[in-house]
Amino acid sequence: ECFLDLCCPFSKKMFVALTTQVLNAGPDKFGGQVELVFQNVPQPWHAQSSYMHEVALAVSLVNEAAFYPAVSAIFEAQTNFFDDRVMDKTRSQVYSDLIDVVVPALAAAGFAEVTADAIGEKLALTGEGNSGSAVTLPMKWAIKYHRLRSIHVTPTVLVNGIEAPDISSGWTGEQWDEKIAALLA
C-alpha cells in the first residue's frame, strides 16, 4: 500500500518509479503476487490537495478502472497545482483545471465515457450547507483509513500491513525490484 498525496513531489516520484519501472512489466514479473494499492492522503497544508484527490475519486466513481490513468495525469501536471499556481483560484476553478488535465488523458487511455460532465456531476454539491458531494464520503473513508494507521507523512509504504520505513521515494526501479524479490523469497 502506498500512501500518497497528489500534491507531494516525493509521492509523485515514488508513483512514477513504481508504475513505469517496476509494475509496468505486467503481473508475470512477480508471478502475480504484487499489487499496488494507492491510498489517498490529501495533506491539509495544501488546500488544493483535497481538490486533486476529489477529482481522482470522482473519476473512480464514474469508472473505477480509470483511477490510475487519472492519477498519472494529475501527477504529470502536478506543478500546475502547487501553492503558487492556485493561491488566487476558487475551488471551482481548480476543479475545472484538473478536469481539463484528466479528461484528454483518459480519452487517450480508452476511457472516453469519463467526460468533464460526468466528473463534474460527482463533484457537484448534493444540497445546501455542508451537504458535500458524491466524493465526500470516499474522501472521509480515505482520511479515516490513513489516520487510523498513523500515516501522516507522504509517501509512506506498508507491505502486508506493516510499515516499511526503509523504502524511499528516491528509490530506482532496480531498488524496488530487489526489495520486492526479497519479500517474495
TrEMBL record:
Question: What Gene3D superfamilies does this protein map onto?
Answer: Glutaredoxin
SUPFAM superfamilies recorded: Thioredoxin-like
Residue ranges annotated as coiled coil are: none
Q: What is this protein called?
A: Thioredoxin-like fold domain-containing protein
